[in-house]
Amino acid sequence: MAIAVVIPGQFGDRRPIWQVYARRRLMAMLTLAAIVLVLFIGAGHVVANRGGAPASASAIRPVSAAATGAPIADNVYIVQAGDTLWSIGQRFHGHTALADYVDALVSTNGGTRLQISQPLVLP
Q: What is the DSSP letter of 109?
């Protein structure tokens, strides 16, 4: 006949009380909430930071002919948010072939890079 001896502190001597389970679940939920919060804030910074300008930059610019997208002079256009050389070319190409007009835009302005509020010389 063998007698089982239970050594205190080893696994299997007794089950943890319900408060231990509650604390573990609470810590798991808090950890998950912290991870979600960090990801949400990080994604917000990535989405809002386009070239260093705040997402509401267009709302704080004064309204003028430049802000409405109208040409300032006969051959100058102020670049707006969402403009591409192709979309500008579609708007102003007239009777010229669109591809030729876009090529002329690139050569006239020294490249393909556009910045919001940049004056763009139209060919």
A: H
The residue written with tokens 């231990």 in the block is 20
Helix or strand run (H / E) with residue 120: strand 119-121
DSSP 22-79: HHHHHHHHHHHHHHHHHHHHHHHHHHH-BTTB-TTHHHHSPPSTTTTT--SBTTEEE-
Burial, 105: exposed, middle or buried (Cβ in 10 Å; 0-12, 13-18, 19+)? buried
- Residue type for position 28: A
pLDDT in tens, 90-122: 888 888 888 888 898 888 888 888 888 888 888
pLDDT per residue over 3-15, tens digit each? 655 556 656 556 6
Choose which CATH entry (3.10.350.10, 3.30.70.120, 3.30.70.360, 3.40.50.2300) describes domain 58-121. Answer: 3.10.350.10
**Residues in Cβ contact with 71 at an 8 Å cutoff, skipping those fewer than 6 apart:** 65, 77, 122
